Amino acid sequence: MKLLQDLRAEHDLIDRMLDSFRTAVDQLIQGQAKPKDLLRFVTFFRVIADEFHHAREEEVLFAALVNQLQLPGDRGPIGVMTDDHRKFRVRLNQLEQLIEKRSLSPAEQVQLRTATEQYIDAMQHHIDAENSVLFVEGEICLRDAGIAELASRGLTAREMKVRFTAEELMQRYPPTTNVEILRGDGCPMCPAYQVTCNGYEREWAKVSRWGRAADDDDSSNW
Ligand SMILES: [Fe+2]
Ligand SMILES: [Fe+2]
Asked: Where are the domains positioned within the chain?
């Protein structure tokens, strides 16, 4: 599905920008980065990650899974991912407020570093969960329902302008990966697993291939 290919490519870009943002925040705290550049990162995450990427996930992909396949939108994988999008918006606003202060006290520097790591960590876990669970299983469910493609939109002129800043920022602030963060595929790697979500096999039991497998088992008993 072209939409999912596009969303995965956007994940790759956002993921690298998150690691680049870590470098920029580190340099800002050491007085080596321009605060204006940090605000350009904030604009990228707001415009490209949220207003373009997350909006299309919610308005196109999640909407199709909820409205056409009757999957739950307020809980399970879709509920968790939608709630994440809202939380990212709040975290990004908090980061912006700290960056805009320009001169940070030692306590505020710690606060900025911590808030940055929390934002990056949460976004990367979210990307992993979508790539390895929601997109994979969602595509199977849609295909089984005869839906091979979902119409979406391209970048607006303003979004395109912001998108072009990414390469320049990543060159200036080479991405730094936090090797201590354990990343991986599947529901058990998602922070929401068994906290607010029971995993897609249970949450999507009626529609997913696992639910059908159970039906098959039932019918074989007759
Ligand atoms: Fe998402
Ligand atoms: Fe995403």
From this structure: 2-220
Query: What are the tens digits of pLDDT across the range 128-153?
Result: 999 999 999 999 999 999 999 999 99
Residue 182, judged by CB atoms within 10 A of its CB (0-12, 13-18, 19+), counts as exposed
CATH number listed for the domain at residues 2-220: 1.20.120
What distance in angstroms lies between residue 127's CA and the mean position of ligand 2's atoms? 5
Q: 186 burial class (0-12, 13-18, 19+ CB within 10 angstroms)? A: middle
Stated pTM of the model: 0.91
In tens, the pLDDT along 153-188 reads 999 999 999 999 999 999 999 999 988 888 989 999
Ligand 1 centroid to residue 15 C-alpha, Å = 12
Question: What single DSSP character describes residue 193?
Answer: B
